[in-house]
Structure formats: structure tokens, C-alpha cells
Amino acid sequence: MIRHTVVFRLKHPPGSAAEAAFLEAARALAAIPGVQAFEALRQVSPKNDYQFGLSMEFADEAAYRGYDRHPDHVAFVRDRWLPEVAAFMEIDYEPM
Amino acid sequence: MIRHTVVFRLKHPPGSAAEAAFLEAARALAAIPGVQAFEALRQVSPKNDYQFGLSMEFADEAAYRGYDRHPDHVAFVRDRWLPEVAAFMEIDYEPM
User: Which CATH code, of 3.30.70.100, 3.30.70.20, 3.30.429.10, 3.40.50.12780, is assigned to A2-93?
Assistant: First the structure.
């Protein structure tokens, strides 16, 4: 199992319609084949400047690669992520 | 529910006995009252320089504070975390 997470901050004002629209578009990633345990999260620690997180799990590397290359993911990154996200960090975990 | 996570890199050489001893000590945090869904994780994304992660969940802020102040947690931070961790970032999530 690989848990893919990304923590991020948007360019949009907090509570704005643009923020809500982005988060709704992000939730649609859950429908891409191979995505399990999808979560849209609010980042609440005052020790970093990120606002939100996405977390999802894949059975293996092949499933993760399939998601990464899927046209819906590629379009989301191009059309929503790159123009609307101010800062982000990807963190991927495997059980030990 | 609050999910407290921390991603980190150790000062120890990868695969060393010191690394294993640190991770064993970290796993003992799971026994502190209020800690749920504890996970010790390997960070595998090449897009950051962290090696490991810890993830745990608390029912609410009070349970999280109780963990933070617990003598076993305070001792772990003082005796193991501060001397042995090279870099880290805390990320806390709540469901949206």
C-alpha cells in the first residue's frame, strides 16, 4: 500500500466561492481508477502555512502510476492545480 | 477527529542500529492515553527529503493536549526527538 498525500495552500481567499469550487474539483479525483481511501482534509496545525490536504491510497506502484497518468488527473493538474495552488508539498508513505 | 502527523529525517545512517532504536522508541508513543490509529511510516516520495512519518488520531483537542503534555511524550521529545532528528514538519488534519 502506498498512501499519497499532498498538503497545500490556495491562492483564493479563505471561504471564497473559488476556494469551494477548487475543493469540489479536487474531490472528483476520488473517482479515478485505483484511488482508495480518498480524503479531503483541512490542515489545522499552526506550525505550517498550508490550509488543506488530500490523502489517497493505492494498492501498489502500478496503481499509483495509473492515477498519475490518467487523463482526468493530468487535466486537473494542468487546469486547476497549477493555476490555483500557491504552495504545496507531496508526502508519500508506506507501512513499515 | 484530529490526525496529528509528523514527517522527519534522522541524523542516523539509514539502516543503522541507532535508527532502529529510535523507531522502536517512537512506536512506544502509541501507548500514551488518547492515541488512536497510530502508524509508523516510511516516507517514499522523491519530491521531499524526509525518511519517516508518524501518524496518530485523537478524538478531540483535549485528547491531543493530553498527549502533548503526557510525561512519556515530553520525555521522548527531550531525550530522543531533539537530539536525534535532523529535520521535521508537523501537519495536522481534520476532516472537511
Answer: 3.30.70.100
